[in-house]
Amino acid sequence: MILLNKNTHDTSRRLQQDGGTSLVTRNKVADRVLDSGRESSGLGIWFWVKINSIGSRILSIITAYRPHKPAGFESVGSNYQQYFKQIRSYTT
Prior knowledge:
The chain is α+β, with helices and mostly antiparallel strands.
């Protein structure tokens, strides 16, 4: 099972998009995945997966991306700043 999470708000037409998270489960572990989800902002910052472990234990794995400070117009940090500015303008 391959889980991918990316910024769905990026409107640039670049072939490469910086940031995002991923997790690959294989073989027996893939068969034990119970559930998965992602943050609701659509920025690709983090997601989680629950795996049925040994006995009645459940293993939760969270993958997260921490952007650097904004370094340019198309940087991950710049994309996040633009998104949160829009959110603030809608809620205030």
